[in-house]
From TrEMBL:
<dbReference type="GO" id="GO:0005525">
    <property type="term" value="F:GTP binding"/>
</dbReference>
<keyword id="KW-0547">Nucleotide-binding</keyword>
<feature type="binding site">
    <location>
        <position position="243"/>
    </location>
    <ligand>
        <name>Mg(2+)</name>
    </ligand>
</feature>
<feature type="binding site">
    <location>
        <position position="146"/>
    </location>
    <ligand>
        <name>GTP</name>
    </ligand>
</feature>
<keyword id="KW-0342">GTP-binding</keyword>
<dbReference type="GO" id="GO:0004775">
    <property type="term" value="F:succinate-CoA ligase (ADP-forming) activity"/>
</dbReference>
<keyword id="KW-0816">Tricarboxylic acid cycle</keyword>
<comment type="subunit">
    <text>Heterodimer of an alpha and a beta subunit. The beta subunit determines specificity for GTP.</text>
</comment>
<keyword id="KW-0479">Metal-binding</keyword>
<dbReference type="Pfam" id="PF00549">
    <property type="entry name" value="Ligase_CoA"/>
</dbReference>
<dbReference type="InterPro" id="IPR005811">
    <property type="entry name" value="SUCC_ACL_C"/>
</dbReference>
<keyword id="KW-0496">Mitochondrion</keyword>
<dbReference type="GO" id="GO:0006099">
    <property type="term" value="P:tricarboxylic acid cycle"/>
</dbReference>
<dbReference type="GO" id="GO:0006104">
    <property type="term" value="P:succinyl-CoA metabolic process"/>
</dbReference>
<feature type="binding site">
    <location>
        <position position="57"/>
    </location>
    <ligand>
        <name>GTP</name>
    </ligand>
</feature>
<feature type="binding site">
    <location>
        <begin position="365"/>
        <end position="367"/>
    </location>
    <ligand>
        <name>substrate</name>
    </ligand>
</feature>
<feature type="domain" description="ATP-citrate synthase/succinyl-CoA ligase C-terminal">
    <location>
        <begin position="307"/>
        <end position="394"/>
    </location>
</feature>
């Protein structure tokens, strides 16, 4: 997926989109975050780094209090950090429904680790980034706690304007990098990486120096930077963000926390990495849509949008809102769609209780409308569709047979006939469709 908002601010203009904007009214923008298809827990990212020679804290993973206690004893560390493993940020300030405050705890007593894990595992943790009901914690990470004498920020990400990967760093790490970019932009450093040469020694050393590493630590940091780039290439990443890349009092450079984003198109050669995908915290409808290669994002309205092509999807959402309606989703079939995908899309749409009507808006320039029609027919028969359905199909054959006029179908599904409010929705959708005549 795209780079984080933090990275975008840091490089001040790198064109790595992290959100898509849908125009939902003349004066308002709705920001829709695309689903991050591959979701890795912190310990999984750390394992990838560890396996590729990047220095991280020693750690173990546990899914029971007894395992956590045993892991704490095996570490034989002066201090231990226990972290609840969920995908949302803000764990340290979160609250469990068990009454425990904080999803990150430090202790020097291994016995305490077992007690704390017992109040985390099986309970829901609520943070500023989770749903109101929180997320159930199924795994904890038990790691060696290291003192950090200094924190820096480092990331490697793909940048369209440079046609390749770019290193971004700042000596101000462990904080909101957006704030650093806004208040002290001179502390943001950038190095463009030649995709044929890779990270050169002089680049790595220059970045290490800009991050504030001195003496032997400069060479050590440069080595870590090169190893992170090797990881970036090896796993087909689009971003590796380390915050903080820290320096310990003992003179060690350590990657204390990392976020890795991956190129979805590389799944065919990254089977082991994608097998770690954790979908437990993702929207079930989005997860199901991904199985059929459908791009689905749930919205707050009641009119389901079933379209082909991201541009048409956004335009359809816009025009519905322009006429006073609210789209229930953003569903892009894409080109080369097959009949089973159409059927699966209908199952997704009808599974959303908010949906009161479905608008199918298909342009046949990139898909055969007959495939769409067959899929719709099958879905209507087998799913016993209970909501009004409006279908707009347009391709070359439709234009030639109707003199360029578009045809609209508004079947009233049985046994449930549309209510008065449903009829109003149908009229609204037809009005939206008619506007395409003047576009």
């Amino acid at each position: 997926m795209a780079a984080s908002m933090a990275c975008q601010a840091a490089v001040r203009g790198l064109r790595a989109a992290s959100t898509k904007q849908l125009l939902v009214s003349r004066n308002q923008l709705a920001r829709v975050s695309p689903r991050r298809w591959l979701n890795l827990q912190e310990y999984q990212s750390k394992k990838l780094m560890q396996d590729n020679g990047v220095t991280v804290q020693r750690f173990f993973v546990a899914d029971s209090a007894s395992e956590a206690l045993e892991a704490a004893k095996r570490l034989k560390a002066k201090e231990i950090v226990l972290k609840a493993q969920i995908l949302a940020g803000g764990r340290g300030k979160g609250v469990f429904d068990s009454g425990l405050k904080g999803g990150v705890h430090l202790t020097k007593d291994p016995a305490v680790v077992g007690e704390l894990a017992g109040k985390m595992l099986g309970f829901s943790l609520t943070t500023k980034q989770t749903p109101k009901e929180g997320v159930k914690v199924k795994t904890v990470m038990v790691a060696e706690a290291l003192d950090i004498s200094r924190e820096t920020y480092f990331a490697i990400l793909m940048d369209r304007s440079c046609n390749g990967p770019v290193m971004v760093g700042s000596p101000q790490g462990g904080v909101d990098i957006e704030e650093v970019a806004a208040t002290t932009p001179e502390l943001i450093f950038k190095e463009v990486i030649d995709i044929f040469e890779g990270v050169r020694d002089d680049q790595a050393l220059r970045m290490a120096a800009n991050l504030g590493f001195k003496g032997p630590l400069e060479r050590q940091a440069a080595d870590q930077i090169k190893r992170l780039y090797d990881l970036f290439l090896k796993v087909d990443a689009t971003q590796v963000e380390v915050n903080p890349l820290g320096e310990t009092p003992e003179g060690q450079v350590v990657c204390f926390d990392a976020k890795i984003n991956f190129d979805d198109n590389a799944e065919f050669r990254q089977k082991a990495v994608f097998a770690m995908d954790d979908t437990a915290e993702s929207d079930p409808l989005e997860t199901e849509a991904a199985k059929y290669d459908l791009k689905y994002i749930g919205l707050d309205g009641n009119i389901a949008c079933f379209v082909n092509g991201a541009g048409l999807a956004m335009a359809t959402c816009d025009i519905i809102d322009l006429h006073g309606g609210k789209p229930a989703n953003f569903l892009d079939l894409g080109g080369g769609v097959k009949e089973n995908q159409v059927y699966a899309a209908f199952k997704l749409l009808t599974a959303d209780p908010k949906v009161e009507a479905i608008l199918v808006n298909i342009f046949g320039g990139i898909v055969n409308c007959a495939i769409i029609a067959n899929g719709i027919t099958k879905a209507c028969r087998e799913l016993e569709l209970k909501v009004p359905l409006v279908v707009r199909l347009e391709d070359d054959s439709a234009l030639s047979s109707s003199g360029g006029r578009r045809i609209f179908y508004t079947p009233r599904t049985q046994p449930c006939s549309p209510s008065s409010s449903a009829n109003e929705i149908i009229q609204l959708i037809v009005l939206c469709c008619q506007m395409w005549e003047t576009c």
